[in-house]
Amino acid sequence: MRAATVEPRCVPTLVIAQRCTVNCRTPPRVEMCFDPSIANCIVLHTSLHQREFLQQDDSVPSMPQGKSESRQALRWPSGRALGNGAQRPLAIGHLNAARSPQCSAEQPRLSNWNRQTNQCSLRCMPAYRYTRLDVFTENPLSGNPLIVFTNGAGLDTKTMQAIAREMNLSEAVFVLPAENGGTAKIRIFTPKLELPFAGHPVLGAAFVLAGPLQSDRIILETGQGNVPVILEREGPRPVAGWMQPPLPTWRDYAEFETLLLGLGVAQSRLPITIYDIGVRHVFVALDTPEQVHALKPDFSRLAPLGHVGVGAFAWDADKVTLRVFIPGAGVNEDPATGSAAACLAVHLVRNGCYATDTLVTIHQGERMGRPSILYARAVMNGKTFTSVTVGGSAVIVGRGELQIKPE
After folding, report:
1. Which end of the chain, N or C, is less surrounded by CB atoms within 10 Å?
2. Are 172 and 164 spatial neighbours (Cβ–Cβ below 8 Å)?
3. Does the residue 244 lie in any domain?
4. Which one from 31, 52, 106, 171 is the annotated catalytic residue?
């Protein structure tokens, strides 16, 4: 291996000396980004993922002993190398874009090498970081998958909706600064539309935020008000969460004939009631879990019912077996639905299936190969419900970033 000095054409006045591992004639990938965790900091990445931090005083951190040969030499237009205590040069126009308003996203990038012209085009490429996790499960690759973008600042509604469509999961969450006394504000999108509230996005977002914040109580601002989430931990890692969603309202469901026809069943063991918790759910009670698993819904009949979750369930003394279909929102079947669990707990207590304050264990997603377990409790005082709680686990399965080219 030998060292090579390459002058990237996209930053013509900046010389980067780097190690060469494959082909010294290959143009390096040079990126500049603003890291919000370090005040006024620009990070320069080479194709070998080496880094130097230019702090507020533009000093270069000292390299560990024995590694001075890998240190990058940074030269500005004056030809003077930047070392410890060096003054900021006056002419750094090629770096200004990294601090421009259009580059105010979490991780702006300047990198786009054109091999045909052998040049780089300087365009701000914001890269929005996300966490991928599975919710209402302790095991990866089960439960309900979720994407949480930890900094949605700067994204408009149209772009958020396009990202949710690109990710093609039940929901995508965008975290924003708090506005009404919460820990953070969140916006929730399905591939088709925005939701004011949904259960597994709230629980998943709380898990993501609880790690770096090291807080056992997260309050998320949603379109249905502030939703508190209490986290349980094993050491520093959150392992379970309990959220208190808004109380649902309900009424008799008028389109029950179309509903039953779409599910392919003749009747429901309990009255067919529609609940509204910010999103709507209607439930059909069947006799056995086997009947629930055997359902083959006609989505062409269910979709015209609109954005309503169609829940088919069976219950016994130990557990509830549930399937939820939401074709009107672009989700034929959902593997775990926290908002449905809250409404179903109220439905079961209202109809005398369980006593008030009973912890209901709900199994969902088994038919999809994504088994999920949700816990729900509805508390009724007299004829009035005073609270509903939904809980479960979540596990982080990956992290990444989405680079979006500005229009």
Report:
1. C
2. yes
3. no
4. 171
